[in-house]
Amino acid sequence: MDQPDIEVLEALGDLGNVRVIPLMQSNKGKRDAMERALTLLAWDNPPPGAVLALMDGDTVVPQGTFDRTVPFLVADPELGALTTDNVPLVAGSAIVREWYRLRMRTRHELMSSLSLSGRVLVLTGRFSLFRAEIALAPGFIAAVGRDSSYHWRLGRIGMLTGDDKSTWFWTLRSGWKMLYVPDVAVCCLEKAPRQGFYDSTIALMLRYFGNMTRNNARAVRLGPQRIGYFTWLALIDQRVSPWTSLWGPASAIALGLFYDARVLPVYVCWVLLTRTAQCAIYGVFRLTFHPLFPLLQFYNQIVGAAVKVIVFSNPDKQSWTRQSTGNGAAAYHASSAVLMWLSLLLLATTAVVVSIL
């Protein structure tokens, strides 16, 4: 918090039962600020049953949100944390706005399904509630501030980004249930981090999927008996789905080149039909539909799959989209590029061989 922010809070006068605890900025990044804030709250020794909210500063929480979410934690003693739906309020071009909207709709469907298993795959940093006994535990605070994961080839990787994945993994490993509340939403103020649509979405995907990658292996190692078979299979799918997504266009191109060129227009029609059907299902829950959705859905699936291949091969590459904290990796690993291109070459070769046979 800067000095002008403190002056604004002082000018508000009496805040009733709200007590403001100012925390000066250290310019060491978000993780350091969260660690110091949680440590300060832990020293304050909150009462048993207290609930702690972790949220971004550019999140708008509608009135009644806490009234509709906190009771879940009160009613279920095995529930450790929950998160809600996100409605993006986007500043930018129409295509960027629709890309954000479609992404949040996809997230809504996936999180609703996963929540039925008593687990989710992320406790979103936009807005999540935790039991104070979890969020103020020394191990949780240490994970937020100085988390790291081990990679068989690259060694220990410091988690510079993805604090919401760190809080999720600590809660998951500790055996707590997690919940997604689909009918409660917070509003997220979004702005494209780059000038163009392609540059902005690639930068965001690199951040999102990079955080996913650095948590995936260690979460899989927990095993299905500890985290549940459905959650464990969903984590396995994160590693398999990039290749199944790329197999469609790779095999269609190979068949078009080596078998019959008419395969390509048939594939295009199939893509438009299936992606329109997928987006129409999303529209049933939101009661809206945009003509760009089918194209953006295919873009997310194919380009997103390619980005996942890149980040799975280079898990040490990480950066924020709007901050300089954590740019790049500590060193260049030639083996990362070699493995990535060999994997893509194997995919293309397999598609060509199948089309010829």
Which tags fit this structure?
single chain; 357 residues; alpha+beta; five-stranded mixed sheet; 13 helices; 58% helix
Could you explain how this protein is built, in words?
With 357 residues, the protein is an alpha+beta fold. The protein has one domain (46-356). The protein is built from 13 helices and seven strands. It has helices at residues 3-11, 30-43, 65-75, 94-115, 132-135, 138-146, 163-173, 197-220, 224-227, 229-258, 263-286, 293-313, 334-356, and strands spanning 51-55, 59-60, 79-91, 127-131, 148-151, 155-158, 177-191. It has a five-stranded mixed β-sheet with strand order 1-4-3-7-2, with helices on both faces. β5 (148-151) and β6 (155-158) form a beta hairpin. The protein starts with a helix and ends with a helix.
Topology:
Elements: H1 3-11, H2 30-43, E1 51-55, E2 59-60, H3 65-75, E3 79-91, H4 94-115, E4 127-131, H5 132-135, H6 138-146, E5 148-151, E6 155-158, H7 163-173, E7 177-191, H8 197-220, H9 224-227, H10 229-258, H11 263-286, H12 293-313, H13 334-356
Parallel strand pairs: 3-7
Antiparallel strand pairs: 1-4, 2-7, 3-4, 5-6
Helix pairs in contact: 2-6, 4-11, 4-12, 6-7, 7-8, 8-10, 8-12, 10-12, 10-13, 11-12, 12-13
Mean of the pLDDT scores? Answer: 88
Spatial sequence of strands, sheet with the most strands: 1-4-3-7-2
Alpha carbon gap, first and last residue: 65 Å
Which secondary-structure class do the elements indicate?
Answer: alpha+beta
What is the H-and-E element order?
Answer: HHEEHEHEHHEEHEHHHHHH
Overall, the morphology is: globular
Task: Give the fraction of residues assigned to helices.
Answer: 55-70%
